[in-house]
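Each lists chain and fold; for instance:
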Amino acid sequence: MSAVRGSTAFPTADTIREVTVAGPQQDAVGPRPTSRDVARAAGVSQATVSLVLGDKWRGRVAEPTAERVRAAARDLGYRPNLAARNLRLGRTRTALLVVPELTNEFFAHVYTGAARIAARHGFGVVLYPSPDGIGPARDPFASARASLDGVLASSMASDALATIRGDDLPLVMLDSDPAGSLGAATVNLDLADGMRQVTEHLLALGHRDFLHLAADVDSWTFDVRAEALARTLRGTDTAVRRVAAPIGVEGARAVAEAALSTPGPRPTAIICDDDFLSAGACKAARRLGLRIPEDVSVTGFDDLTLATAVEPELTTVKLPAERFGERGMESLIAVLAGRAPDATPLPVRLTVRGSTGPVPTDAAAH
C-alpha cells in the first residue's frame, strides 16, 4: 500500500474543542473525560498532564508521576485531541518515507522500524514508493510543505524528491553519501565493512578468482560495495571480473550465465551486490551443471527471506533493516528538535551458510 497513515482534514482552530474517546469506564453517551479529569485523578496539575501525554516530561516530571498520569488517562479512556494540538503547533506530525519500491522486503522492514519510532513520538508515516522504482515520481500532495513535517528518503529514490519538493523540508537521507547528502543528516549501514567480511571469508577459503555480479544501478550504495571489494583485494594475488546485472532473479541469471560461459579460467566465487542477484547466480550455475559450493561459491547482501529459501542456503551480509528505519526516524525527530543525530554507521554482519565452501581442488592446484 502506498499510504499507511497520513494527515487528515482539520477544522479551523476557532471551532476546535478538546475531544476525547470513550474508554472502558465511560458511558459512550455520557460526558467525556478531559485533561482536567486526568489531572484530578492523578493528583497533578493540567500542565503536568500536558507534559506527560505530549511526551515532553523527561527531566521535568518524575517517572512515577508520569506513569501515574498515563495510568489515569488509560483508566478514564482519555485521548488528547491531536488535531487541535497540531493546529496550535502548526504541525501535522507526519513524515514521508520515500523508497524506490515496495516489492523489496528490505524497504518494508525499514518502514516497520521507522513507524515504530514515529508512533512513540506521536507521528504518522506516509510510505511513498517511486512508481517506476528508481527515478522521478508524481507529486502525492498538492503541497508537501503544507502536508508534512519532514522526509526520510532512500538514496535509490532521491530523484523523487525533486518532484515532491521534499528537499525543501527537513530531510534525512538513508543509505547516502554523507559528503554529498541533500539532507540535514544521513543514516548509513556499514556496507564497506560488510563487503570486507564477505571478501575476507572467501579469501580464507582459498578463492582467488572472483566474479563480481554488480547491481546495474547508479547509486552510492552500490559504489561503496565495489570500492570496498577492490580495497580488500588490493595487494593480493587475485583476479576480479565485474559484470552489471538488473536487480532481479531472471535478469541476474542471464548475465551470470553468460559470464560463467566466457572462455578462460572460470571464477570460483561469485560476489553479488544483493540476494536477488545471488539467486540468479545460483540458477545460472545449475543450468551450466555447476555445483554450489563444490564448483563455485556464491555470496549475497541483505539477508532477505530469499536467502534461506534457496538451496543451499545463502551466505550473505545481514543488514538490520528495521533498526535502520528506527535510526532514520530517530534522526528526523532529532533534526526537527534542533539536535544533532547519531551519525555512526550501523554495524552489519556476515551470515555464513551453505553456498560458500573451499576453493575447488583443481582451481587451487592451478
The first helix runs from residue 35 to 42. The first strand starts at residue 94 and ends at 99. The chain is about 40% helix and 15% strand. The two ends are 53 Å apart (CA to CA).
